[in-house]
Write a structure and sequence with these properties.
Helix content: 55-70%
Order of helices and strands: HHHHHHHHH
Number of helices: 9
Low-confidence stretches: none
Largest sheet: none
Radius of gyration: 21 Å
């Protein structure tokens, strides 16, 4: 959501920041799971329940955020809703350039063919990228970090 609602010039930074905090959360979970902190048998339920607090905060606050402007404009075709969401997220000002960028992106996506999974596997131009993604995903599943 953060990557999609951010202005185009900050989108890469927003996506990188969210990945950083995701990794930081994994590290904090591993550290707090040490026996000396919350990893003992009596504190284990507290450690397992600690992931519920951020989820609860997100569940309570997300309904108050507007839908993402690119979604409103590209998927729903609601230009007024897009302008309203942009003003709510980024404040008052001239945001026509961002709306024009979203419209250009929509035009680009209109001319782009969306491949099915079978077409993607058969396409020789994507074969090495597909091999890399499958290899990385498989090794992430087998390395044990998800179990931790």
């Amino acid at each position: 959501y953060v990557g999609e609602i951010s202005p185009r010039k900050l989108r890469g930074f927003a996506n990188s920041t969210s990945s950083f905090f995701w990794t930081l959360g994994k590290a904090i979970g591993q550290i707090s799971g040490q026996r000396e902190l919350l990893g003992s048998q009596s504190l284990w339920p507290l450690l397992m329940a600690s992931c519920g607090l951020p989820a609860l905060v997100q569940l309570v606050t997300l309904p108050f955020f507007p839908e993402s402007p690119p979604y409103l404009l590209m998927q729903k075709g609601d230009q007024e809703g897009c302008k309203k969401a942009i003003r709510q997220l980024w404040g008052e000002g001239q945001h026509q350039a961002e709306i024009d960028d979203i419209m250009k992106e929509k035009a680009t996506m209109k001319n782009t063919k969306i491949l099915s999974v079978l077409e993607l596997v058969k396409e020789p131009a994507f074969r090495w990228q597909l091999y890399m993604i499958v290899t990385l995903t498989a090794t992430m599943q087998l390395c044990g970090i998800n179990a931790v």
